[in-house]
Amino acid sequence: MRDGTDGEQVRVVALGGGHGLYATLSAVRRLTDRITAIVTVADDGGSSGRLRAELGMIPPGDLRMALAALAGPAAGVWPAAVQHRFGGSGALAGHAVGNLILAGLTELLGDPVAALDELGRVLDVTGRVLPMASTALTIEADVSGLEADPRVGRRIRGQVAVATTPGTVRRVRLIPSDPPACAAAVAAIGDADLVVLGPGSWFTSVIPHVLVPELHDAMARTGARKVLVLNLAAEPGETAGFSTERHLHVLAQHAPAFRVDHVVVDSASVPAGRERDQLVRAAARLGAESVFTDVAEPRTTMHHPGRLAATLEQLAPASAKRRTA
């Protein structure tokens, strides 16, 4: 494993989607400029879902949020502009400006990665934002608790449907099941010093990354230190009622061979006692050391960027520790 003794900044790859990935990127940009965000592409709701259906493009919303998280000071008003949503009730209502820009750039350049790189230059982005696959994906889930007989399961399809189901999600899969991974994303994982997965919507933003065979294999082969950041609380819908330990169990069920070096857990979310002991054992089955620390924004279920950055700095190779946050 590279230890940063060459004096270069640590190379970080962060995988996820939505607000969870935004939190990770807000933290790691305090440690390094060499960041690659690898983003889920299964969203089928809102502005992203409309553009996906109308133009056949990969959904841009989570990609846009990652770009905004990494925007630099020279970008001026552009970060706020790409996040702005149109109001009203017309054809543009609900669309984010950045989603439309990415749609236009993708049509103009003929390549979603080139579109992301171009908008990244406008936003003075620190690092790079990439899709996890080069085609839009669909999430399908096996869900129980939707029928009168609790033993009867139902198959539901679509990220929004999975994320908001009142039932219990048992398993998810991707359609297609063997999608082409973004080649640049695979290369970035291979070249990384630190790979961070999570936090985020467990079944729709975190687990999908280990279901893309080329990404899974790249994470297995990389010499990077791998860190899994757990959510601060179960989410209404897809993980309602889940213990922290159960999050690890379902990840292992979906990817039995997946291994990480550290699992980051907010100390207050899992107090010392039986639940913490069970979590430590579940993490060990992933090959991981459990790291209990304070990473929450006070009185919220959101990660504090500074606290998360400090934790990742301690787990990162030495080059990250020589930078001033």
UniProtKB/TrEMBL annotation:
Keywords assigned by UniProt, alphabetized: Cytoplasm
Pfam families cross-referenced by the UniProt entry: CofD (PF01933)
Keyword Cytoplasm carried by entry: yes
Subcellular location(s) per record: Cytoplasm
Classification via InterPro entries: CofD (IPR002882), Gluconeogen_factor (IPR010119)
Coiled-coil residue windows: none
KW Secreted (keyword) present: no
Protein task: Required for morphogenesis under gluconeogenic growth conditions.
HAMAP family: Gluconeogen_factor (MF_00973)
Family: Belongs to the gluconeogenesis factor family.
Protein name: Putative gluconeogenesis factor
Gene: yvcK
